[in-house]
Structure formats: structure tokens, C-alpha cells
Write the C-alpha cells for this entry.
Amino acid sequence: MSDNRIDWNSIESKWIKRWEEQKLFQADPDGRKKYFVTVAYPYPNSPQHIGHGRTYTLADAHARYMRMKGYNVLFPMGFHYTGTPILGMSRRVAAGDAELMDTFRKIYKLSDDIISTFVEPVKIASYFHNEIKMGMKEMGYSIDWRREFTTIDRMYSKFIAWQFRTLRKKGLIVQGSHPVGWCPRDQNPVSQHDTMDDVEPDFNEYTVVKFRSGDDLVIPAATLRPETIFGVTNMWVNPHVEYVQAAVDGEKWLVSKEAVRKLEFLNHKVEVIKSVKGKEMIGKSATNPLNNVAVPIYPASFVEADSGTGVVMSVPAHAPYDYQALEDLKADKKTLQEFGISVSATPIVIIESEGYYSGVPAAEAIKQVGASSRSDEEKLERATSDLYSHEFYKGKMMQNTGRYAGMSVSVAKNEVKQEVMQAGHADIMYELVNKPVRCRCGTECVVKLLNDQWFLNYGDKEWKTLAHECASRMDIVPQDIRQEFDHVIDWLRERACARKSGLGTKLPWDQEWIIESLSDSVIYMAYYVIAKYVNSKTISDENITDSFFDYVLLGVGNAEQVAKESKVPLSTVEQVRKEFSYFYPVDSRHSGRDLVPNHLTFFIFNHAAIFGRENWPQQIVVNGSVLMEGKKMSKSLGNIIPLRAAIKENGADMIRLAMLVSAEILQDADFSFDTIRGIRSKLLRIFEMAEKCADKKKQAAEMQQLEDRWLASRLQRTIAETSASMDRLRTREAIHHILYSLDQDLQWYLRRAAAKGQENIAMLAEFLDVQVRMLAPFAPFTAEEVWERMGNRQQLITAAGWPEAREDRIDLVAEESEFLISSLLVDLQNIVKVTKITPSKIAIYTSAGWKAQVYKTILASILEGKTNFGEIMKQLIANPETAKAKTEPKLVQKMMEDILSAPLEARNRRLKLAGFHEVAAIQDAASLLSAEINKAQIVVYSEEDASRYDPKAKAKSARPFKPAVYME
Ligand SMILES: [Zn+2]
């Protein structure tokens, strides 16, 4: 069928309309088991592109699958307006930002009329909200749109205010000073949603050790390993960098200019006194505050001004970078001469770790990775992290570390830090690990110590314990990502939960603050129940107070009183409560992998804090991202394709399948137009089949033929396998079963049937019925259309149900027959190829009955794991029925090889097989064998047939499942 006979877009609009008319996706409580699927709601500051589509498509396929399995599935959608990005965007529009205008015009194809309205933030949100919604409909997402909302709706704000008061009552919201990612321009904390490329500002805590030079100059060095202070042999200063002397909290510090700014954001009082050239410091010395040893200051052009303080302490015995730098410097006569210094420093080993490292650990670590100079960044990085974790877990402090001697490194690390901090020899500094992080306004972010900020106290021990319990009761798909959640739950600390600007809900007790976007999006799945009543105007937000939410979401309080207070009819209050109790908990939460360290973990924390165990979420599903033709999608590569344009061009089903077939869940999916083309031709074949089977379903099914029985059996197996794949959301595997394995089976069936000149339309109709039902979650438009064209006019496929594998249709004899025939066909073709005979007659000999007994005995032994030839022979001889094997050791040997090289599935089948006759199976396929091999005459004999035609005495070499062949 040629592509232009199918108008994909009009099929799409036909079924979108039909689904809407039949209210197929509107879920209300009923007698069925419910299944509540949610996916992280979109942030409407751009249209959806191919990259966004994967998570939603996966969630939709999941929802559709569960619906077909008979569940009452609720799959709702909201829109997340909260935060600063939309605000920032409207400012950039007002300022005529060229890059943004370019994106709007060239990628999103927006007209200037529309763009000009974007100076108003809500206009941006509502425009893209509508775009995204249209795209979701066109993709065929089975969403209950009655429950749609935005996060700036008045009722939603009341819900979020309730959430926050509830958390505060539980003591989980605190006010204080904590480090946060910060945009200096917006004067606002930033998190993933606020940054370009959606990166979460991630920072490390450094100990800044105050070395001293002369009487009063502090030379501060930031380190992640305070326990190594004892091993410092020298300091590194970059001779080409501008440093300053500055008064820092009353002390005189030498730091880079860049460090001054960082210290200010950390609330230090800093006043620059004078500037100092790095090279002026070379050759001077600095005193270690822990042991009063003076160490020299050496030149190091690798020291970056904006890293830490711009001064580095050197621990060559335990830091591969320092070791290598020292070696390089020793060899660098020119530099030594330039500064008039010589290198006297030698590594001081202060940590011993069992077994692994001896001598100078850093030197060994370098040797292991094969680095040879300071510029081997990658290798040195590996050496550093190897050595760091080895010493952290296995290392012990040595005798030369005073009172720390014998202490494990993991303990000493904190003890040393405490000592130097308390003695005033050190300070704390934070540094972005993944810098530069840019705010969406374009400004580079910093770490700020924020005072009087409101924090969600994710560091609270009891809360962490609850969150761990919640996660451990939950199903995580895929399983391998579970420990990532445990890890995040452990390391999360206080998190700033409010901003001074942006869209969203005001902090109820401090109206200067607006609740930020990763804090007002953690339990909103519960709000979908309420949204339906708000949208239908059954409930007005006007008089709603916390008692309403307490009652409907927590079951706390008295319905009559709530009804009176909120001016909502009592029956409605009860109904909302009932509906919530029906749909909650969330059965499956879908999201991209990038949201594991924030949103998904906050979702766990907040559910654990607010709801009882019976309403904790049941499952989290995490998927990887999407590549475009093997490349990351980015504006600069120009490979961002808006979803709606792609649907118009390629058809929604093609895109859905291409997204879900190219990778298993956690891997990056590679979206490619080749895949799209391949899929389209597969779907066209299905349309062709439908034409063939149209309205012939009711024809009496005669399933007597071997190939019919075989195809029916294969169908049952594929149903079972596909269901198992879908139960774990292994969509790649599932689609392969449905589109590729089934297609292979069909092709074989058609070859067999064509050779016999009889095609069983009823069988084909049954096949297609099963195939399109299983296809429906992935390609719902094609499935509905084909289903209808097959003559099913009473019921949509969405309502028709997922096929069930029928044990009684499994047919081992038919499976073995077709397996035998197809391998025999390949063998014959090979013989023809090798011998170059053009046969006019082919005689096929099946093995004698006693050999079958021998085969079964060997097979049973091998399946029990016994593969010793001598023992097998002994066993055969002991039984009179198989004793004849004694005279044919070679045959036994060959049978063993046959069995060992047969697929496991075939081995298991053959053990259970009863009533299988090779002669009958091959005779059944004689027409096919002849048709495919030179129209030769096919004759089949048993080895035991005395009248057989066997001029070359080939029959005696026949083995079970391995017939012998003679050609002439
Ligand atoms: Zn900013």
C-alpha cells in the first residue's frame, strides 16, 4: 500500500473527535479497580518539542495499557506557571533580546503580533499552555481534560497555602541562613527550573585553611580534604593572576579578585586594601596552622583565579595533581630560573591504606592511570577520585599526624576540620561544582549564604527516615535507579522554598515571599480530584479554608462543619472526599531522569510528611532523554523540532513508536527519520492486512492446518511476552514483539500458506485482532482505524481490552514442526549452495524410532546439567530400549552436540513433546520446500521404511530433528 493512500492527519482528527464524543478518558469512581497515572506537568514557556514528548508518550502508553487491562485509569494534566522563568522571558521580550526573538521566530515560527503580547508574563504562559495542550491532543494522549488547572488558579493557591501551613505545623519549614544557588541580578535563589539548560546548581563545602605569611597576612587555601593538612609541602600561587590583599572580617587575606566576590556572597565583610601580583608571592613561605611548619610558595599557572580562593595547598603524597605538578616543576628549569627558586619539597605520606597503596600513594595512583604531566587532566582526575575514595573508606591516619594517628580517614576528616575551625584557623566556603551555571536571565550564578530565608528542612532526620520508608515501599522502574533515590534522600539538606519574585502562591505567613516552583509541585496530584469540581463550578474557591483540604485530603474534621464553613454542599464535600479516597494513592508517577535529584525525591518527602501510609505513591517511572539523529538537541545545532510540526509531517503514531522503540527506559532514545520510515512501512502493511480481513472475521475458523495451529500458538506466546514487557514498561521489547517478531511469524505463515495455495482468512483476522490490540497503547490512531476497517463497529479498540494468552492454544507439535521445517529449508538451501547441484528430486529421511528414545534420554540428562559422555553412554546401555547406542558412539556424540547447540526453548519443548511425527511435518511442508528449491520433487521416508528410495544409503545418518538428505 502506498503511503499516499493513508491520510494520517485526517485519521488522527477523526479519532480525537470520536474519543472526545465517547468521553473515553473521563474517569470517575466506579466499581472497577482504579489506576492513577500522572506525569510531571509541563512548564509553558515554549512549545513542546520532540525531546519533551518521550515522558508523556510513555505515560500515555502506560495509561492506555492499564485501561485495556480493565482498570479505571485516571490520567490528568495541569500546567505549571510558577516561578521566575516566564517572568524573565517577558523581560527579555520587553528588552528585545535578539536571541530569544530568533528562537520565537525561527524555531517556534511565531508571528510578531503574538510575540509582542509576551511582555505580559501570563500571556506567554497561556499561549504556550494552549500550544502544548493542542500538541498533547494531537499526540493522542488519553487525558481527562476536565481536571486541567494552572498553578496560579486561586483554588490551587489555597491548596498550596494549606500544604505549607501543614508542613510548618509539623516543624518541617524553618527560617535561617543557608547556602543557596543565587542569581545576583534577580536577587533570587535559583534551582533547576530557573537556569539555562535546566541545571541544578550543585555546590561543595570547602574548608578554607588559613596559612600565614609574615606577621599578619593570611594565605587561605580551600580544600575538600582537611585531614591532609599534615601533608602540605608547599603552596601554589599563579604568578600571572592579580591577587588582592583584603580585610576579611578583620583579618588581612591574600586572595584572588574573583574570590573577593564569592566571600561577599557568603556574608563576609570584605574590604580590598591593595592589589598584589601573583609573582610577588613566589618564593615566600607560609606557615601551616596545625603544625607551625613553614612551607614555600611555588608558581603554578594551572591555579585558576576563580577556583576557591585562588591559592592552593599542595599535598603531593595524597593528591595526584599536586604530585604531578611538583614533578613538572622540578623539570622546568626555565621557570625555576625565572623565579630564582629550587624545589626542595618532597611528599609527606600521612595516610596508610591497607593493601592497595604503598610508597607514595599519589605516585602510584598516577602510575595506574598512566598520566605523565599536569596537562593529562582526565587521567589525573581519575587518579584523584580513585585515591580519594580508596583512602576515605580504607585509609588510616599515620603516626606523623599527632593525636589523629590510627584514626580512619572518614572520621579524621571531620575531626581535623572541627579542630581548625574552633581554633580560628579555618573557615567554610562554598563553590559551585558544575559552574558556570547561568540563570535564565543570562547572569552567572553564585553560591549565596542567605539569611532569614524560608527552608524546607529536608535535612530533618525523622523526615528522612519516613522518606526512606516511603521509597522502600514503592516500585521504582527501572529498579537500577532505586539507589539513586536513597542517595538523594540522604544528602538533601535545607532547601530554599520561596522567592522574592515570580508567579505563584504567596507564603501564607510571610507575604513578601512567593513559594517556588519545585516546592508547589510535590503533592498536586491530589489536586486533580478537586480541580474537576472547580472547573464544573460545583465548588467555588471563595470560602474555602484549610478545614476543607484537611477533610477531603486527610479525612480530618467534620464534614458538616466543613460544608458550613466553605459554603460547599455537604453532599459535594462527601463526594470529593470519596473521589479522593478512590483515586489516591498515585499508582504511577512518570518523569524524566533529570528530576530524580529534585522533583521526584521532593514528591516522596512531601507525600511521606503529609499523607498517611495508605496514600503514599506506589510507583515511580523514570525515563532517559531523547537524542535527535544521535545528537543532543540544542538550539545551536538547530535540531529542535516542535512536536506539532513533527506530527503534521510524520503522523503521531510514527512519532510515538519511534520514541518508545529506540531505547529501553533509562537509555537515551535516539529519534531518527529512518526509524520513522521503517515504522510507517510496518503500519502500512497492517492496513493492507486489514483490507484483506475486512468483515471476514465471522467466517468459521478452521484451524486444522499445521501452520494455522503454529501461528495461533505463536500469538499466545507473544501476548504473554508482550504483557510481561509492558508490566515493566520495557516498551522497546514490547514494540519489537508486536511489530517485528509478529511480522516475522506472519511472513513465515504466508509463505507456508501460499505454497499450499490456501490462506486462512479467519486465522489472519485473529492474528490482526491480537496485533492491533497490542499496538493500541503505542499507536492508538492506527489501531482504532484498522480495528474499524476490520469490521469492528460496535466498540472502540481502546475499550476492547488487552488480549489474554490462552494456554489451550499453545501447540508444541505445531511449534516443533515449523521449527523443523524452517531449519530443514535452510539446510537444503545450504546443500544446494555448497554442492552446486540443481536438484530435481530430494529425498528426506527421518530417523528410526530407537534413536528418538536415545535422544530423549540424552536430552533429559543434559537438561539436568549432566554432560559427561561416558556417564550418558552408561545410562543408555543400562536400558534395553536404548542399549543399541553402544554400537553407535559417534551418533550419540552427534546427538549431544545437536542438543547443546539447540536453543533452550527448543530443548525444553522437545522434552515435553508428545505425538510429534517428523515424516508428517515434512510432508506437510513438501509444497513449500519444493517451491523454494528448484520445484524439485520432495519425497519423505522413515529410516525404517524398507521400501525407501536411498541410493547412497544416507538414511542411516538421520538423527531426531536432523533428517538426512539425498539430492539428485
Ligand atoms: Zn537571573
